[in-house]
Amino acid sequence: MSEVTLVVNGRKVSGAVEDRTLLVHFLRENLNLTGTHVGCDTSQCGACVVHVDGKAVKSCTMLAVQASGSTVTTIEGLANGADLHPVQAAFKENHGLQCGFCTPGMIMTATDMIRRHPDGLDEATVRAELEGNICRCTGYHNIVKAILAASKTMSKASKSKANKAA
Amino acid sequence: MTEHTPNLKAAKITGGVATDQRHDSAHKHVAGTAVYIDDMPEPAGTLHVGLGLSNVAHGTLKNVDLSEVRSAPGVVDVLTYADVPGENDVSPSGMHDDPVFAQGKVQFHGQPIFAVVAETREQARRAARLAKIEYEELPAIISIWDLDTEKDKQVASPLTLTRGDAAAAIAAAPRRVKGRMKLGGQDHFYLEGQISLAVPGEDDEVTVYCSTQGPSETQHLVAHVLGVPSHAVTVEVRRMGGGFGGKETQANQCAAIAAIAAKKHKRAVKVRLDRDEDMTATGKRHDFAIDYEVGFDDEGNILGVDYIFALNAGFSADLSGPVGDRALFHCDNTYFYPNVHAKSAPLYTNTVSNTAFRGFGGPQGMVGAERVIDEVAFAVGKDSLEIRKLNFYDPMGAPGDRNLTPYHQKVEDCIIQRIVAELEESADYARRRREIAAFNNNSRFIKRGMALTPVKFGISFTKTESNQAGALVHVYADGSVHMNHGGTEMGQGLHLKVAQVVAEEFQIDLDRVKITATTTAKVPNTAPTAASSGADLNGMAAQDAARQIRKRLAAFAAEKYQVPTDQVVFLPNRVRVGNQEISFNDLVKQAYLNRIQLSAAGFYKTPKIHWDRAKGRGHAFYYFAYGAACSEVSVDTLTGEYVVERADILHDTGRSLNRAIDIGQVEGGFIQGMGWLTTEELWWDGKGRLRTHAPSTYKIPLASDRPKIFNVALTDWSEAYEPTIHRSKAVGEPPLPHGMSVLHALSDAVASVADHKICPRLDAPATPERVLMAIERLRAEAAPKK
Ligand code: FES
Ligand code: FES
Predict the structure, then answer these.
(1) Does residue B782 carry a pLDDT above 80?
(2) A154: domain range?
(3) What is the CATH number of the domain that holds A149?
(4) Taking a C-beta distance cutoff of 8 angstroms, is the pair B748, B450 a contact?
(5) Is B733 a known active-site residue?
(6) Given pLDDT bands bounded at 50, 70 and 90, which one contains residue A82?
(7) Which residue out of B236, B412, B733, B781 is catalytically annotated?
(8) CB nearest to A139's CB, from B26, B190, B670
(9) 0.90 exceeded by pTM
(10) Which residues contact B455 (CB under 8 A, 6 or more apart)?
(11) Residue in chain B lying closest to A133 (CA)
(12) Cβ contact B664–A42 (<8 Å)
């Protein structure tokens, strides 16, 4: 057993976990953050993606103890209160979901992708970068659309912020 | 209490039928607050299950030593067939051939033999590995390819369809071709695997939260396994993380195991399969071997055709009989066969028992039909599209008699001509055909190919009793509405569509209608949500319930305000009674005070349909849904690798209840169908072990596999020929076979290496290896003989 301490969705949490406990289980079982899903148990589907220190990580691939000391954001922590994050809003707006099981992981991957491409994304990049996220329902069309739309809104927003600052 | 202030001036309600609403749970899906079964708070003391699976494909169980399993840390119990209080059987077909736990023998690699019940899931799974099982191995049949469709064992009785004299027509035809096609199966790969949480109740009661498409059937089978009446078992599901047919019967085993353990230990029990177990131990789409012979004239008119559809049922019947039937029902696709003979053969093998998967054998039937079209086209040297058009059923309303299916149902609503014509135009078929030919002439290694394939899909369960549905609607005294029906939500937007129907009926805004979890306690004896029928059946049942209440409200208003009933008109969020308007909420309140019943159970059964299986005749389908797809690929002829460059789809959902939802179904269905026919390969080794049991080896389409250009449209002019719910058409399964256009585009690209002289006979899944092998074969055949 090890003691882990981390900041999850802005809240400091700690707990004693078996060394082999995966981050995803710590989040789901100890913290009841069940928005992060398990789709394959083998690091391939991307349903379990969260942000660890701002980067997208498959939480079924990381031990809870490895994440100790880090800042973790899950799908539940993405929105700003009642206001959806632009990526969440775009998935909802563009019908980027059907059964919704892949959606939290898709959104977390997309958010990181957009962060890494502040000047905007093109379709080919989105498609290539989504290789680690499986969706069985939508055929990806509306997911890609949602990510492109969110990237546009966010780069506009950051540009107008930058303009104001300048 | 929050007071509802409806818009009493609105010209239209928000969220009625034929409007593009977002998925009702979208805001929860994106926020991570949509609750799937594994996300529900577990009752204190919940136990977890790990399964012990067979390591051989066929054998007798000589010795099953579970002592180490029992003494492993955290283990509370180990269940075997001896612990089943009722029948050790979850066969959906009543054949008694689907044991919950293997007894005496195992019939496939991965068959559950025992279940470990432990404090944690991890402990249960670890303990399961400690079993010592001795088998006496028996010869195992792994593939159907070499089986005899007359002599070898079948799990259900085969079906034969006959019209005219196919043998004579083929014999007399100016030209004939005969061949055989291999068509692979498919894993559902619902992102949420099989899961059940059973909570014991008083006396013999148990509630099972189960990711199931068929709560009523799960209920009946759990009762059967527990040896209790169905009234003791409640099955509930709010939503599934995907189903695709894989949770029609395959959910039952986990539900039964959870229920047995929960009753025995008086604690809640959860069974959640992990991905490998799920892929190994649960059934899939059937792989087929299709034999065909076709007689035709020099123009390419089909005169007679003969098919044998052999399907790999696996070790038990499950739904294989009906799946084989549906393959035959679709072996005509959109084509009229003047003479036809077709038979199915659901063959026994020592593999997992195959089951429903979106299309239910229909797509396999169509793939057979399209192969035959290809053979004819190559034989007469014409573009396959020409042959397709030549052999279409007569269009709706045409005076001709080329409209009888192999099962003697008249096709009355054929609109395929118009769909194909419009798609040819929008996809620019003719011009691109020429461009592709020019491209291929100048390109040595990369070859392009294109194909346009049609779809006609029959809507109705062929099991007549499944074509019924129930709904329960309550209007509360504040005017808000609670809606429940027998259908289940697996992402397809069924609940939303049914809620739209109810909102429309009452003329209230959609957000006044509460969608609630499907439960056998509210609506009994329902059909599984399958056969694309969810909205057709449940929409009608919910409409019936809402209408009953509306009628009572209207009668009450007429009496109270002393006007004739026809002067009571439901307007958006309000009711006009004579010449005054009252808000819907107020009318409901008054009705309540006057003791008017504000709850109703609705019911629907599909009219017109009948089916005599012994005779192979009937009106098997209420109506047909149509569509067509045109795909273009480029193939690297040195490696067999390919890219889908473009796909255009035009699909018919009648007067769509919700176009946004329907387009999503078409897109997702096409990609899933494409995956089935291209990259998704189930591969069993000689020992009957599935070697592609995880996404590392089993390749479902990724975002990067999507066509580079992807245009999907719905026919905006069509409406259902029959009075379906608001004249809409079913949409779940019909788009899946659009994936055939990719298979045929690949075939077209392959054919280019032999100057389109030889039919490539490209089998499926057309993995890059298979494409490459076809290219090599065609090159060899085309080379001048030495
Ligand atoms: S559950 Fe983590 S990648 Fe699938
Ligand atoms: S929406 Fe179902 S898996 Fe993506």
Answers:
(1) yes
(2) 86-160
(3) 1.10.150.120
(4) yes
(5) yes
(6) confident
(7) B733
(8) B670
(9) yes
(10) B333, B334, B366, B625, B626, B627, B628, B629, B734, B735, B737, B738, B740
(11) B702
(12) no
